[in-house]
Amino acid sequence: MSNDTKLIYLPAADPARGRLLRLPADMESHEAFRNITGIIASLEEQTSTIDPEELDDALEANGFERLEFTLGPEIG
Prior knowledge:
By secondary structure, this protein is an alpha+beta fold. It has a domain at 35-68. 37% of the residues lie in helices and 14% in strands.
């Protein structure tokens, strides 16, 4: 991963279900935030419960790449 790679974390009620995404190279973080918010809103209009696979497919179709990560210990 290069130094100019941009990432965004999508939290979930269950932290283990959160998503770490690589942004498309030509997308700024504020654009990504708006884009992802729109994708989630669109899925929520279709159903009250978002299917994780549908979310992943919609994000991928918009240029986001889901990355695997290890959730570390809680700090605080």
